[in-house]
């Protein structure tokens, strides 16, 4: 269930794509599998970079670790080779291994020579700790949930307390999945930059929406007098996609700008917060087999990247706002609950 989009703050001046989501980038699709039963409040979200086999047809990619308090898998090889070879998976901290194994099994099913005549596959799984709402020790997520999220991938991206975002918290209220996109023009070409976030970060008093500090009111409404004394902890995963022709080095620069959008919402990348951004381009694919031709594509000049940098920052900030706007109240383990932001501050419906 999603809350109303009435009054949602609009970030920046760049136009959004038709869906205002990461799926505005051609070929990109998103799927969720949600587990919502009593103390189990968790799930899996999968981002497919294209409709084909990402092992055979890899896409350029790079990541930035703003703060490394996290347990993701696959980042070392992405850093070394600059490509994705599985879909991007998001889940809770204790489910990384199960989801990675599911990615490996899916890749082997499609390519039986993986790990034999062919090299092994690099699963890519990101995580946030949803243990406040979810009984994370149950390790309820298994490979079937990854398979279900992958099979569900489509262009309509549901946001809020869904998939991997089901048990996540942000700024003392309900967090989760958010997405947004921005369109830019460059050398007579029009490109899309889309972002999807798994938002599980922030302290109540620091929340800033479209440049307006609303954190003090939020902290007061939540009646958490000791909140200011609590360190920022949690995590956020930010995935940025574009159809602009960028190589892995340029994509790393783009991923870094996700941190600008994150900072605008009130985050300082605190000690206990794992803040990671991944960027990939769908402009070309890199063949797995050496006997296939490498793509011949002209990359954008470095001096033309500023509009993409702005789009990355704006779409990430907007995606975080969307995660807060769409997330409904969830009650989880041991009576723990996170209220929806718009339930705590209903006046935000009209104030944007």
Question: How would you describe what is shown here?
Answer:
The chain has about 350 residues and is α+β, with helices and mostly antiparallel strands. It has a single domain, classed as L-amino peptidase D-ALA esterase/amidase, CATH 3.60.70. The chain is about 25% helix and about 30% strand. It contains 9 helices and 17 strands. The protein has helices at about 75-80, 95-110, 145-150, 215-220, 250-255, 260-265, 305-325, 340-345, 350; strands spanning about 30-35, 40-50, 55-70, 85, 90, 125-130, 170, 175, 175-185, 190-200, 210, 210-215, 235-240, 270-280, 285, 330, 335-340. The strands form 5 sheets. Strands 3, 4, 9, 10, 13, 14 and 15 form a 7-stranded mixed beta sheet that branches. The protein has a 4-stranded mixed beta sheet with strand order 1-2-5-6. β1 (about 30-35) and β2 (about 40-50) form a beta hairpin. α2 (about 95-110) crosses α3 and α6 (about 260-265) packs across α7. The longest helix has 21 residues, at about 305-325. The radius of gyration is 19 Å and the shape is globular. The two termini are about 20 Å apart. The model has no long low-confidence stretch (mean pLDDT about 95).
Keywords:
24% helix; single chain; 17 strands; hydrolase; alpha+beta; seven-stranded mixed β-sheet; L-amino peptidase D-ALA esterase/amidase; 352 residues; four-stranded mixed β-sheet
Overall residue-averaged pLDDT value? 95
**Terminal-residue CA separation:** 22 Å
Q: Which structural category do the helix and sheet elements fall into?
A: alpha+beta
Secondary-structure element string: EEEHEEHEHEEEEEEHEHHEEHEEHH
Largest sheet: 7 strands, mixed
Number of domains: 1
How many H/I helices?
Answer: 9
Could you tell me the CATH topology label. Answer: L-amino peptidase D-ALA esterase/amidase
CATH arch. level architecture: 4-Layer Sandwich
**What is the helix content?**
10-25%
Task: Classify the beta-strand content into a percent band.
Answer: 25-35%
């Amino acid at each position: 269930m999603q809350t109303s989009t009435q009054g949602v703050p609009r970030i920046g001046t760049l136009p959004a794509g038709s869906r205002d989501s990461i799926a505005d980038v051609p070929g990109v699709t998103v799927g969720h599998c949600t587990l919502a039963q009593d103390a189990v409040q968790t799930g899996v979200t999968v981002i497919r970079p294209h409709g084909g086999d990402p092992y055979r047809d890899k896409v350029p990619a790079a990541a930035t670790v703003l703060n490394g308090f996290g347990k993701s898998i696959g980042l070392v090889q992405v850093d070394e080779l600059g490509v994705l070879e599985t879909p991007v998976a998001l889940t809770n901290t204790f489910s990384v291994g199960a989801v990675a194994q599911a990615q490996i099994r899916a890749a082997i099913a499609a390519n039986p020579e993986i790990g034999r005549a062919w090299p092994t596959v690099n699963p890519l799984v990101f995580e946030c700790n949803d243990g406040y709402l979810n009984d994370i020790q149950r390790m309820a997520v298994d490979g079937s949930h990854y398979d279900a999220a992958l099979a569900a991938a489509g262009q309509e991206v549901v946001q809020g307390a869904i998939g991997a975002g089901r048990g996540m918290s942000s700024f003392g209220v309900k967090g989760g999945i958010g997405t947004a996109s921005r369109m830019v023009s460059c050398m007579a070409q029009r490109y899309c930059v889309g972002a999807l976030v798994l938002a599980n970060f922030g302290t109540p008093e620091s929340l800033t929406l479209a440049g307006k500090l609303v954190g003090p009111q939020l902290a007061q409404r939540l009646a958490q007098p000791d909140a200011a004394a609590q360190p920022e902890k949690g995590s956020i995963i930010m995935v940025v996609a574009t159809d602009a022709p960028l190589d892995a080095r340029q994509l790393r620069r783009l991923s870094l700008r996700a941190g600008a959008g994150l900072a605008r919402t009130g985050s300082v990348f605190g000690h206990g917060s794992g803040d990671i951004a991944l960027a990939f381009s769908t402009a070309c694919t890199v063949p797995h087999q050496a006997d296939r031709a490498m793509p011949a594509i002209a990359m954008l000049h470095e001096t033309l990247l500023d509009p993409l940098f702005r789009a990355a920052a704006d779409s990430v900030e907007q995606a975080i706002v969307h995660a807060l706007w769409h997330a409904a109240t969830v009650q989880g383990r041991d009576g723990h609950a996170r209220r929806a932001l718009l339930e705590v501050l209903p006046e935000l419906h009209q104030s944007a």
